[in-house]
Write a structure and sequence with these properties.
Strand content: 5-15%
CATH architecture of the largest domain: 3-Layer(aba) Sandwich
Number of helices: 16
Order of helices and strands: HHHHHEHEHHEHHHEHEEEEHHHH
Number of strands: 8
Structural class: alpha/beta
CATH superfamily of the largest domain: Nucleoside phosphorylase/phosphoribosyltransferase catalytic domain
Number of domains: 2
Mean pLDDT: 94
Distance between the termini: 47 Å
CATH topology of the largest domain: Pyrimidine Nucleoside Phosphorylase, Chain A, domain 2
Largest sheet: 6 strands, mixed
Shape: globular
């Protein structure tokens, strides 16, 4: 076990950790025998220096290895996760969760990894629980969900036992206003290891580094995006109410742009159309969108992200090529049926 103090000193000197050092540090953070003060000093020093894509990827590699294996590797090469980092404090609806349902209705296997809301009233886990999903389901039931519904929800606390050694330190640092690498690590450690990803970043400055980390992790194709609201504000989604900073990884590594809704064929929506609430309110919004009664900007944002998911997984040839199909999936009854199918599956 490495001495975290040595690595902390290296970070304090402004030096990047090698991949081997970062992996060793991640294992030390997950070890019960390493004290919380040493862990807190290391995480604070890493945040002050600024995490690099290589360091983030090394951390993700270790926590993927330490995760419980759900046994879904046979689907991983064609699967996608649609997920956000959280932490944007924008109060937005769970766009990515709705996209999961639409993509599954299109026959795309989706492995959704998420948690309950921490900085929001409704995390993805809260919304799927409101739909009837058993967050504590054993792996075999989760696999059945993937087979029968076309998607699975991996509740993060159930698949990452190593995190119990880090939670006290994270809470203590958060109380001091100190963010850590774990604020952005969650989307990168999906236990199902899907080969594709549509990832929303809480911060514009993290879009490129997250794409770099996904490249280093061997992601087949991914798109990282951030909705820019201005004045340092934004949302961890690509939306039709914002300009969107996007960067690709894997097959889409050449994508490095700022997308405006008008350039993608959408009317710019008011940001208010994206706002959500608690789990009950967001479930009502989801059902309203599926019935064609939701806010236009929210419906359009779900359609846009569904089209992007189809592109990322190779179902279409461009970012906007799948828009007609995506609109039909979201508003033509397929997503509504997937909601009903979800309730029926988990009720039996």
């Amino acid at each position: 076990m490495p001495d975290l103090a040595i690595l902390t000193a290296k970070l304090a000197a402004g030096q990047e950790l090698t991949a081997g050092e970062a992996r060793a540090a991640a294992r030390a953070l997950a070890a019960a025998e390493v004290g919380d003060p040493a862990k807190a000093d290391f995480l604070s020093a890493l945040a002050r220096k600024g995490e690099t894509p290589g360091e983030v990827a090394a951390f993700a590699t270790v926590f993927r290895e330490l995760a419980r294996d759900p046994g879904v590797e046979r689907w991983a090469d064609g699967a996608i996760d649609v997920v956000g980092t959280g932490g944007d404090h924008a109060g937005g609806f769970n766009i990515s969760s709705a996209v999961v349902l639409a993509l599954a209705a299109a026959g795309v296997k989706v492995m959704k990894h998420g948690n309950r809301g921490i900085t929001s009233k409704c995390g993805s886990a809260d919304l799927f629980a409101a739909l009837g999903v058993d967050l504590e389901a054993p792996p075999e039931r989760a696999r059945s969900s993937l087979e029968q519904l076309g998607y699975v929800f991996f509740f993060a606390p159930g698949y990452h036992p190593a995190f119990k050694q880090i939670v006290p330190v994270r809470k203590a640092l958060a109380a001091r206003g100190q963010r850590t690498v774990f604020n952005i690590l969650g989307p990168l450690i999906n236990p199902g290891r899907p080969a594709h990803m549509l990832l929303g970043s809480f911060s514009e400055t993290w879009v490129v580094p997250l794409a770099g980390a996904l490249d280093r992790l061997g992601t087949k194709a991914a798109l990282v995006g951030h909705g820019v609201m201005g004045e340092g504000r934004g949302i961890d989604e690509i939306t039709t109410a914002t300009d969107n900073r996007v960067k690709g990884a894997g097959r889409l590594a050449g994508i490095d742009a700022r997308w405006r809704p008008e350039e993608l064929g959408f009317a710019r929506a008011p940001v208010a159309d994206l706002l959500g609430g608690d789990a009950g309110q967001n479930l009502s919004l989801l059902e309203a969108v599926a019935a064609g009664r939701g806010p236009a900007g929210l419906a359009d944002s779900i359609v846009l992200n569904t089209a992007l998911g189809l592109w990322i997984t190779g179902r279409t040839g461009g970012a906007t090529a799948g828009l007609p199909l995506a609109r039909d999936l979201v508003l033509g009854g397929a997503m509504k049926k997937k909601i009903a199918d979800t309730r029926e599956f988990w009720a039996t």
